[in-house]
Design goal:
This protein has a seven-stranded mixed sheet, with helices on one face. Helices cover 28% and strands 23% of the residues. It is globular. By secondary structure, it is α/β, with parallel strands linked by helices.
C-alpha cells in the first residue's frame, strides 16, 4: 500500500493497523514524514510499527513497480498532474488498484484508469466525500521520463 502525499501518515497507519500489510507514505515535506513516523511508533502495536514506513521524496522519483494498491488524496490540480504526467512513467503495473479521494470527473474517464466503483462512507458529505476505486490499465506511452519533475 502506498499513499502519495501522505502528510501526517494517518491513512498509512490505519491501513497497516487494520490489514497488517506493509505501507509506505510519501510526502515532500520532511517535517510531515518525521511526525508520521513518530506517530506510527507510538500508535501501532510493536509487531506492526515496522510495516509502516515513510519517505520524504518528490513523488515523481518514487518507483511504484511493486505497488498493489495506490492511494491519493491530493488537491484536484495536483491530482490531474499526477494521473496524466507521473503515473504513466512511474512503473505502476497494469492491474494495480488505485484509490482516489473524490476524483474529479475529468480524471474518472481515461488517462490509463478504469473506474470500477464510487464508494466510501455513506451518506457522502463534505465531511465524508466519496472514494473512487480504479484499476490501472496503463497508457502504453513509450516516451522517456522527463528530467524535470512536476513539482520542483
Amino acid at each position: 500500500f502506498v499513499d502519495l502525499g501522505s502528510g501526517d501518515g494517518r491513512i498509512v497507519r490505519a491501513v497497516v493497523g487494520h490489514f497488517g500489510c506493509f505501507g509506505l507514505g510519501v510526502d515532500v515535506l520532511q517535517d510531515s514524514i518525521n511526525r508520521a513516523a513518530d506517530a506510527a511508533r507510538l500508535e501501532l502495536p510493536e509487531e506492526l510499527a515496522g510495516r509502516a514506513r515513510f519517505l520524504a521524496a518528490d513523488m515523481a522519483h518514487v518507483d511504484l513497480s511493486d505497488v498493489d494498491i495506490l492511494f491519493m488524496y491530493l488537491p484536484d490540480i495536483m491530482l490531474r498532474l499526477v494521473v496524466r504526467k507521473l503515473l504513466p512513467f512511474s512503473g505502476l503495473r497494469e492491474g494495480t488498484l488505485v484509490l482516489i479521494h473524490d476524483a474529479p470527473d475529468d480524471v474518472i474517464y481515461g488517462h490509463g484508469l478504469r473506474h470500477m466503483v464510487r464508494g466510501g462512507a455513506k451518506p457522502t458529505s463534505a465531511r465524508n466525500p466519496p472514494l473512487d476505486l480504479f484499476c490501472w490499465q496503463g497508457t502504453h506511452l513509450k516516451k522517456e521520463i522527463p528530467t524535470a519533475t512536476l513539482f520542483f
